[in-house]
Amino acid sequence: MATPTLVKGARATRSTVALKIVMAVSGLVFIGYVLAHMYGNLKAFAGHDAYNDYAHHLREFGEPMLPYEGFLWVMRLVLVIALVAHVGAAVALWRRAAKARTVKYQVKKNQSSSLSSRTMRWGGLALLLFIVWHLLHFTVGKVNPSGGATNDPYNLMVESFDLWWMTVIYLLAMLALGFHLHHGTFSAIQTLGFTNTASSRARAKQAGWVLAVVVAGGFSLVPLSVLVGIIEK
Amino acid sequence: MASAQGTSPLNQPAQQVSDDARGYYTPGEPIVDPVAPTGPIDQRWTQRIFDNRLVNPANRRKLDIIIVGTGLAGGAAAATLGEAGYNVKSFCYQDSPRRAHSIAAQGGINAAKNYKEDGDSTFRLFYDTVKGGDYRSRESNVYRLAEVSANIIDQCVAQGVPFAREYGGLLDNRSFGGVQVSRTFYARGQTGQQLLLGAYQAMERQVAAGTVTQYTRHEMLEVIVADGKARGIVARDLVTGEIETHLADVVVLANGGYGNVFFLSTNAMGSNVTAAWRAHRKGAYMANPCYTQIHPTCIPVSGAHQSKLTLMSESLRNDGRIWVPKKAEDCDKDPRDIPEEDRDYYLERIYPAFGNLVPRDIASRQAKNMCDEGRGVGPAVTEVGPDGTEQQVRRGVYLDFADAISRMGRKAVETKYGNLFDMYARITGEDPYETPMRIYPAVHYVMGGLWVDYHLQSTIPGLFVTGEANFSDHGANRLGASALMQGLADGYFVLPNTIREYLADGPFEKIDESHPAVVEARTDVEQRIQKFLSINGTRSADSFHKQLGNIMWEYCGMERSEEGLRKAIDMIRDLKKEFWTDLRVLGTNESINQSLERAGRVADFIELGELMCIDALNRRESCGGHFRAESQTEDGEALRHDDEFAYVAAWEWTGEDGLPVLHKEDLIYTAIEMKQRSYK
Amino acid sequence: MRLTLNIWRQRDAASAGSMQKYELDGVSEDMSFLEMLDVLNEQLNEQGEEPVAFDSDCREGICGNCGLMINGQAHGPEVTTTCQLHMRSFKDGDDITIEPWRSDVFPVLRDLIVDRSAFDRIIQAGGYISANTGSAPDAHAAPVEKKKADRAFDVATCIACGACVAACPNGSASLFMGAKITHLGELPQGQPERYDRVVNMVGQHDAEGFGGCTNIGECTAACPKEIPLDVISQLNKDLRTALKQGR
Ligand SMILES: Cc1cc2nc3c(=O)[nH]c(=O)nc-3n(C[C@H](O)[C@H](O)[C@H](O)COP(=O)(O)OP(=O)(O)OC[C@H]3O[C@@H](n4cnc5c(N)ncnc54)[C@H](O)[C@@H]3O)c2cc1C
Ligand code: HEM
Ligand code: HEM
Ligand code: SF4
Ligand code: F3S
Ligand code: FES
């Protein structure tokens, strides 16, 4: 595959590093979103009305400057763009890496990489599946597996997580998210070029741990609490 | 003061009376450097730069230059000549030009910058180098070397070579090899690497610009001499085995040193003499081949499997104390259990003034003497003598840091020598902070090489030789940190200014593949390869190489004697016969075949070894790296004979069965008076 | 000691290769790993079998010629080059698997020898400072802050062995490239070409077919010169700046 010639007119925008920067920026958008979303979810602990008010408030946010649900749609648009960019870049890099080594080692040891860094792609795929399912579940499709009403977000959530297998699906997804964030946070900071010393690199790794634990843990609290009955209708 | 110097001779031409090598050579006509400059020594080079003709920039594109070698000498030349607009083809046997052996140099590079304001000057560097070379080098060349040394540092810094710096951000210098001024620039223990990468990067830039074409994994196997001029080379593509001819207007050899003739040396595994030797066989004279530098601080041999030796920086001798047990029966004891009164700090004892800092050759020879007396330390290794007899000898002396650690503290020793200690621990498995290091001398550098004139042109017109491959600047002994200086001086500043005088007559009449000289060179190469592959004997090339190394080390190593050298020559001749009848090279020419590569190199080493012994036999004096047992003072120190040997011995090849012809070039000094050195 | 060696044998780039098993006795722990292979080769030559081809030159850890995948680790179990690895890191009776670097950009030329010429081309694309011979100002014209000079040196020690590529799950050469970009980028002399350099080097890297870096960090663990991951961050930062400048 080696090109024995020199490339002419290389452009920064067409480089693998640019792809990575796209991935890092979209990843950071996701991080911002999940943090906010997690905060919203935790309102569940404040009870039925507070939670539903919050959901409602989101839709009115920005009025009258924005139409009803305007803010929500702007956010959705940003998220969709980020998703397309993130997944697109991920696929491009994945294919590249697959082509870079077509003959595998008979024996290969990993020395310093974390499990999370090596499972980013499969973890990302799992997250993609989860997001599809999650949207069907709560937003687009509004499926209530236990058969109840779907127009009350709080009740929909509580009824869903009363089912053990729903909780398991969500907990597994949160595990994947935790892994993805553990490496992803560090990786994004490194990709953006902020880790030029050993200490800044150590801090970026810590940030990865903190985010992974806070986000995955924070999200998991709600389904777990429903399951054990701390949160109920 | 210097400008008055250089106008009248200070010594008489030598008159040799002894003739130890009679029967092994034919005396030839004396040789004179046809382009030697005259006039005040400090103006010779400037004048020459002006006098040498220029090549019109439009013409440069039409001039093809072949450069064999990408070390400091070859890499720097390729970059500079490429920048000038010539059409350069660069060859190396490694997979990248950046891996040339210059990369391994550790200590540093000298330059008369006088940044320390400690009294250094071009003249002092010149003086130290001539004296260090034991007055066996050409003064015009050495002066020029000292003169351009400062430009080298400027050039390298501009390329981004990360030399060591002080807190103020300016370059740091250290003193090296016992010199009293601090003129050595360094990049930790990796100076050669950083300098080479500078040259390599400059060269790669020219590759991108299209002025340099690089041929890696190519080994030059023959020069093409057509109508009296060097016009190209025959090279083997080491991957496909293809035999290629490359034609040009001029050929430059920068193929490095041949220390590997001793098998074990600090040189890289692939370092070889083939390019130079093939040129020698085509008419280029070989000068002072016996001048070899043996470095005292290397890690000792640990067994018969040893493939090369590792140098430990000379700087260790600044703080370490060298000793062996007084009694042979103590040699296998734990050194820490040997009481002070039973230790022999032999350098401090014999040379109270210089102690452990005596020059390389003295430190080396004394270490060998101690081991020969049976007082060596470390594991006894089986030594197969040149005649095949085996004996058990301990080859090592202690280099002890216990005093330094108690004086400076372990921390300070660690900061100063930490990386060297680590390397030692990795190789030997011993902790040098706890037990003394063991060291032993090893072949390190060769001062001999192809004879060149002041323009670096050999006796074949159009064949230039630079770097360690030529003989020119270091006389009988090289000062530390001066080889890097010479390689870069040749490559960046000297060759580009002298080669144009030759190229001004070009472009030369084109020759093509059908020229009889091209066909002949090519056929020779092909036949030789077929010969190697078809002998089908029982022994590997390596095993012959090891045996040659044993002979050379025993008889043409640290101490040489008339009797030993005669014996060695006979043994080498026998070895050569055996080689050509009992070699086994498996595989084919048409793919990577490392046994085949080695066979070619060993064949050339064998012939070189014989010439080295003849040269050593003829030179019945001790000078620099060459110590003849017959020529020493009452207390065993080297004794020079300027009256007989103040000349360069340039040897001419006369065929497989002919005797080499000795041409002498007188060394006449006009700026420095010769003195005997003394370190007592 | 006695060893069982599983070694990749391949005639040339066009042929298929396979693992071969060899028994080797009488290995001493003072041997370097490559000296152990020398002994094997001497034995093979005697038996009339072609020796195993592998690259090495300086055998002191500086030229970057050597490099083998030993039991799944680039340059073996210690942080050093293959030539500086010694047999005391192994035990009597060990099974050792020896493979060439695996990367489609480094095709196997024979047995354990690969073609790393892509590294030269990455340097050609911009891994230099343009300073024609003779054009240099005095070496003291531009002082360099000690901290920067030290960092430049630390990363300039890369020997282009390719272990980073061999170890990286993505087959990326980012560590190698980052080392050069950081070295030249720390020095005042390297500033004028700094941002073009990174764009051109990365462009060549990508065109060669190396993978993109996803910050996994196997490279730095395999690097015999301990080049830190900082250099990849620096590379990214310089590229980001180049993007901003519209290069
Ligand atoms: C361990 C060690 C440490 C040293 N430390 C110092 C030091 O601190 N200071 C100092 O001044 N000097 C030092 N020296 C000496 C110095 O490094 C060398 O003398 C110098 O680098 C030689 O440079 P060169 O360009 O002449 O040749 P080399 O760097 O040896 O280059 C030879 C080139 O020729 C090529 N070549 C050879 N034969 C062929 C062929 N047949 N076909 C094609 N290509 C061929 C090779 O591929 C290579 O590119 C040291 C030497 C050693 C061994
Ligand atoms: C939608 C499906 C997703 C896929 C397929 C996916 C895939 C990937 C892949 C392959 C990487 C590169 C791995 C690496 O750089 O080491 C990555 C990086 C990253 N992902 Fe995702 N991911 C997805 C969703 C998410 C989500 C939901 C978030 C945040 C909550 C996220 C945050 C990140 C971050 C921060 C990075 C690091 C960017 C970088 O390396 O510079 N990703 N993702
Ligand atoms: C336990 C974990 C989670 C719970 C209980 C949960 C709950 C919900 C609920 C109730 C909604 C509907 C809100 C509304 O319509 O007002 C929603 C929407 C959404 N959730 Fe989650 N969520 C969880 C985790 C996640 C994660 C990890 C992600 C992303 C990686 C995510 C992404 C989204 C998205 C994109 C929407 C749609 C927002 C919109 O456009 O309206 N959720 N979630
Ligand atoms: S960065 Fe390290 S592993 Fe990669 S080529 Fe350089 S020295 Fe080898
Ligand atoms: S292992 Fe590979 S993914 Fe990046 S950090 Fe190193 S190049
Ligand atoms: S052979 Fe030079 S680094 Fe290993």
TrEMBL record, chain C:
Domain of life: Bacteria
Cofactor(s) recorded in Swiss-Prot or TrEMBL: [4Fe-4S] cluster; [3Fe-4S] cluster; [2Fe-2S] cluster
InterPro entries: 2Fe-2S_ferredoxin-like_sf, 2Fe2S_fd_BS, 4Fe4S_Fe-S-bd, 4Fe4S_Fe_S_CS, Beta-grasp_dom_sf, Helical_ferredxn, SDH/FRD_Iron-Sulfur, Succ_DH/fum_Rdtase_Fe-S
Main enzyme class: oxidoreductase
Keywords, in A-Z order: 2Fe-2S, 3Fe-4S, 4Fe-4S, Iron, Iron-sulfur, Metal-binding, Oxidoreductase, Tricarboxylic acid cycle
Species assigned in the record: Nocardioides deserti
Domain 4Fe-4S ferredoxin-type: 149-178
E.C. number: 1.3.5.1
UniProt xrefs under PROSITE patterns: 2FE2S_FER_1 (PS00197), 4FE4S_FER_1 (PS00198), 4FE4S_FER_2 (PS51379)
Transmembrane intervals: none
PANTHER family for the chain: SUCCINATE DEHYDROGENASE, SUCCINATE DEHYDROGENASE IRON-SULFUR PROTEIN
Family, per entry: Belongs to the succinate dehydrogenase/fumarate reductase iron-sulfur protein family.
Annotated protein name in UniProt: succinate dehydrogenase
A Pfam family recorded for this sequence: Fer4_8
